[in-house]
């Protein structure tokens, strides 16, 4: 009887695994992750830099660069890797003035792309740049404000500001520094920050306001948390003291996101507002979080794999003939005004949207 039960369990397990794999591997023509990622990655290579006020590389470009590199590595596209290296090379010479200053979470995350290039090439120049950005995030400047000094005295980054965006901007560069150096101080920093933000900002339903004084659940803002948590959890040592708290926060968010997913697979600009428009960058970030959770075994595949698949198919329909993602909310600061979020302009090709689409394409190609 026991043998019969075990055989049945094996068959059911195989059928379940196959169904899960089909959700993430078998896509109709026009929505295959490999092809979609290639379109978006090569489009990025050909694009001009996106700058803050015409001066420094914008974090959205860094996010897209990271996605293009992840895709290139997954597909072993050596041509693309070389093109992405060539795009970075001028930063060592004539484009060096475009490097962001090391004084803000949005600027410091530039180090993450340098770390990714180091992991591919082992060129020490990339590592040097990456470490400068990672370390300066914890090195209190001489002209620090009292609030910044207060955060530093408690062991947090002096750049802490309790905006949910930070849980990608801070954690990505610290996590990549950990992967490059093996020094646990970097991932300890990222985990400590993540727990602070979870304790201060997560709502009872698992979602997040844009900021403590802005009670609106903005899709892309929440998306930074949705991406930051699984990316950190993948590399966080299993015995790390902060792992249970971060996993708790991640699972609570995923459960709530599943409940607010639209029938067409998308999520709205304000997640919990049915009369708001479906927004692509937030949708892509939530989809990525689902994909990673299923692949890592943290999320129930029977529930979340079909949800991720539905979202991906909806997302691909929002890529136009020029390989631009449409319906992307432009860069948005916090504001305690619901209509403000409703009326935000939508850009085609905005790198806030191109980036998480690339993350999803790379993730769908496997662990």
Automatic annotation (TrEMBL):
Name of the protein in question: Glycosyl hydrolase
Lineage of the species this protein comes from: Bacteria, Pseudomonadati, Bacteroidota, Chitinophagia, Chitinophagales
Pfam families xref list: Glyco_hydro_88
A single BP term in Gene Ontology: carbohydrate metabolic process
GO molecular-function terms, A-Z: hydrolase activity
Annotated substrate binding sites: 165
Keywords: Hydrolase, Signal
InterPro entries in the cross-refs: 6-hairpin_glycosidase_sf, 6hp_glycosidase-like_sf, Glyco_hydro_88, PolySaccharide_Degr_Enz
Signal peptide coordinates: 1-19
The organism of origin for this protein: Chitinophaga tropicalis
Family annotation (Gene3D superfamilies): 1.50.10.10
